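Q: How would the structure tokens look for this protein?
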Amino acid sequence: MTRRKICVVTGTRAEYGLLYWLMKEIESDKELQLQLIVTGMHLSPEFGLTYQEIEKDFKIDKKIEMLLSSDTSVGISKSMGLAQISFSESYEDLQPDLLIVLGDRYEIFSAVSAAMIARIPVAHLHGGEATEGSIDEPIRHSITKMSQLHFTATKEYKNRVIQLGEHPDRVFNVGGLGIDNINKLNLLSKVDFEKAIKFNLGKKNIIVTFHPVTLENSTAEIQFKELLGSLDGLQDTKIIFTKANSDTDGRVINSMIDNYVYSHDNTIAFISMGQLNYLSALQFVDAVVGNSSSGLLEAPNFKIGTIDIGDRQRGRIKADSVISCPPDKKSINSALKKLYSKKFKNIVKNVKNPYGKGGASKSIVNIIKNCNFNNILKKTFYDY
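A: Here is the predicted structure in token form.
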């Protein structure tokens, strides 16, 4: 029996963490053959050359270098063009039966565009979501229209994919992939975690991740300065920074983090913590602060708060443990005050994660195995 070749693309550290258990499921299945393409930040020294960590877990079939040393809109557009050329060549060599992609980043748009032209069916994970402040929003919905199978994280997101004209028979609500990581990884103890990151935790602890709001014009520096101003007012608090992605103005934020950490001995910064260290950290911090999707998807499982700043995640489904606030110092100060209030702590204790209880990876593989790929490329617009 010929095994189906399932090609997975990853371009960022966070996305790889979400895809890890899905790839393990594919790799261990006798009916499927895993192909892995690594691109984007994984291959960049500036972002930690994280492909080296991937090589410890999986065989990489293709490495696609596409990042220019520029995070301007022109630089990113050129990177997308380079990526599309290289993806088309890689597909010609690998001849996959199905491409699996997650989310909404620009390198994934290039990967899917090339697959569409090459007549390779696409399975899209985490579609139907809304992030009204970033270019991820139109990219995500565009990928939906170029994909043939859809695996969403909530019922609401499933309905939105159908609303975009995709047939309900091809849309599956499997829950959030990040919860599989939480359920399956052996997370570190506090002592081992502190040793791993070479940093001692304090009485209070927060983890900060802030990305540019890419549909706003050069607001990264202003907004992040407001956040740092609020952090200055915290007492007895240790702060762990994880750096921004290779988005427009991401380097501005990362430079500001470096300068802040240099002058504050209660802080530490990482280009990439890795999934084990990052999820272990969520056991011991009081909150995820910034505008990372992790604060919405994973933090609720650890019964900790999230302070979601600005518009990057606006439109996403949020648990009761999420405090949303504008990107100004006064509002962030109010959110931090609420975070440590007795009333909010009681809410967090009983919070439920709207992204499910886990098992998404296994569900996706079972559906793919039972799917007939014949004539799957042709779609009829479904009037919702």
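The first strand starts at residue 4 and ends at 10.

The mean pLDDT is 93.

Upvote if useful.
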